[in-house]
Amino acid sequence: MRHYFPGILLLFLFPFFLFAEEPEVKRERIFTGEGLYGFMNGGAEQFLEYGVTRLVTRDLTYKDEEYTIDIYDMPTPEDAFGIYSLHIFKCTRADTDGCMDCLSPYQLQAVAGNNYISVVFPSGSEAAKSHVDELLRLYIPMDGKKNPRIPDILKLTPPYSGQLKFLRGPISVSGVSTSLSKLLENIPYTGIWFIADKPGKRYKALIYLKDKEVTGKLKAKLSEAAVIQAGNNFIYMKGEEAEKEENDQGDFGF
């Protein structure tokens, strides 16, 4: 009969806990609901449109590098992806961690289940960048098992980050497309998957609607050529952004 020394058995079973370096948390704050207004200086309306329920923010040191990690609890993976999709720009690496993620020179953003996560490393150093993935995994499982389901009708392939947005309400829609925002006036919808061709000022939008009656109302506002596919509670359409007015500084919002 073989005998195992208890310490060796523990070493085999729990290597992570024995060797992982613990971050030094310098400050932690928790915000819920309307409390986000005081923290975000006017940017909370967009998060509240997506139904954010809680934000945990931590300033910490990990392997001699400074980080700030913000973890937002959202109602669904689609809401988490939606708010994430509005905040990523020019990813140097996207969707490579087994989840939806975007690495930029000073920040890693990711979606894990119902969480939208932002990790900022102000130094922008290669050392900080090299440790940011492992730091994130200390707080959030990044296995991709609870990623939002991208509708098959869109016929997209990864990486999704940077080419797809999910819009929940009028704030997010108006920030992305003036044309679509005007089209959806007085049309109740539950969510929109949005793909933009920015150079051509064209877009595609998969719009989920309240019911068959509302779907018919929206369809009546569209030309036959604009409708890619339609069902009882959705329309997949293509559109074009109107020419800018003289004082209009907007675009797709990308």
Explain the overall architecture.
The chain is an alpha+beta fold. The protein contains 9 helices and 12 strands. A 7-stranded antiparallel sheet has the order 1-2-3-7-6-5-4. A 5-stranded antiparallel sheet has the order 8-9-10-12-11. The longest helix is centred in the middle third of the chain and has 12 residues, at 126-137.
Question: What is the element layout, followed by pairings?
Answer:
Elements: H1 6-13, H2 15-19, E1 24-31, H3 36-40, H4 44-49, E2 54-62, E3 65-73, H5 77-85, E4 93-94, E5 100-104, E6 107-112, E7 115-120, H6 126-137, E8 165-167, H7 170-176, H8 178-183, E9 189-197, E10 202-209, H9 212-219, E11 227-230, E12 234-240
Strand order of the largest sheet: 1-2-3-7-6-5-4
Oligomer: single chain
* Low-confidence regions: 1-19, 245-254
Terminal Cα separation, in Å?
A: 66 Å
The Cα radius of gyration reads: 22 Å
In what range is the share of β-strand residues?
25-35%
What's a concise summary of this model?
It contains nine helices and twelve strands.
Key phrases:
elongated; alpha+beta; seven-stranded antiparallel sheet; disordered N terminus; 254 residues; five-stranded antiparallel sheet
